Each structure stands twice: as structure tokens, then as C-alpha cells.
Amino acid sequence: MPLTVRERTTASVGAVGSASFGGDLSLPLESRLADGLGDALGVGGASDEITLARTDRTTLAATLLRSLTDKAGAEPLLAPSDVYRVVPRRTWIRRKAEGGLTSAEFDGLYRLVRLQLLANLVFQDSRRAAEWLHSPKARLGNATPMDFAADSLGYEAVESWLHEIDQGYFA
Question: For 26-49, what is each residue's pLDDT tens digit?
Fold first, then answer.
């Protein structure tokens, strides 16, 4: 049986590597993803997505907006070009000044942040994850995964593919 990306990474980099990226690799992928989303959305390492879903949407939208705009020397959650896939540039500038997002904007940005964090966990390297998300894939009709994830159906297909990769199915 093929090793998962997580198992190969743990075997090749040991305890130091597992602590440096993606948290405790012994935790299930979904738990690590929920923790990352909780951190990104200011819910502090949510134990599951139900905790996130029960949080006030206005608060989450404002926190996501801050997370996407406050760089403070850290790598941004999403590249500006990814943000502009959901919110046009001029609208984005206005939203930053107002400090809020519409429900549709929040949903779209949340999907892309979740996809980016999931890819980071699967590939154990944010640069490799970004390259994978932004390069055309024959499986997606030569669209990039980020382009394909523009709606819920495409997002779910890309998310499923990332889970397949994590489980060792690379085709």
C-alpha cells in the first residue's frame, strides 16, 4: 500500500519537519485543516468546522479581511490575484477601508483560503502548494485548480483531488 504524503514526509524529515509545517502530522488532515482555518479566522485553532460555522459571520468576515490584508512580515494567506478572482480590485480597496465583506465575497474567499491551506498541508510546502494551485492541469481541462474552484462544484472537485493526493493517488 502506498504511503500518504504525510507518512512520506514524516519518514523523510522526522520530528523537526513535522513541527515546522502543518502542525502535528499524527493528527488527521481535516483536524489540521480546521486548526489552520481557525487560526486564519481568529477562532484560535478551532477543533472542527462546526466551531467555525457557529461563529458569527460578520466577525469571521472582518477577521478574514484583516488576515488577507495584514502582512506584518508574514506570507499572505492568498496572493492578491487570488483575492481579485472573488472581489474586483477596486471593490477590494473599498472593502478594506470599510472593514467588511459581503456574504458572497466571504464565501468565495473562504473557499480559496481553505483550498490554499489544504494544499499547504498536503504538499508540506507553501511554495509547492502555490505552484500546484496555479499551474494548468489536464484533468481540469487545462484550467488551474484556483480557476476551477471559482464555484462550489469546482472547489469540491479540487478538494477531492487534494485528498486523493494526500492518500497517495497521484493520477
Answer: 567 777 787 787 777 777 655 566
Place of cell 472542527: 48
Give the percent of the chain with pLDDT over 70.
76
Look at residue 143 and give its three-state secondary structure. strand
pLDDT of res. 61: 82
Distances (CA, A) of 91 to 60, 66, 139: 19, 15, 33
Q: What is the largest CA-CA distance in the chain?
A: 52
Report whether 33 contacts 121 (CB < 8 A). Answer: yes
Does residue 151 lie in a domain region?
yes
The answer to whether the CB of 85 falls within 8 A of the CB of 146 is yes
Q: Quote the domain boundaries for residue 76.
A: 5-166
6: Cβ contacts below 8 Å, ≥ 6 apart:
25, 29, 166
| pLDDT, mean over the chain | 79
- Is residue 171 assigned to a domain? no
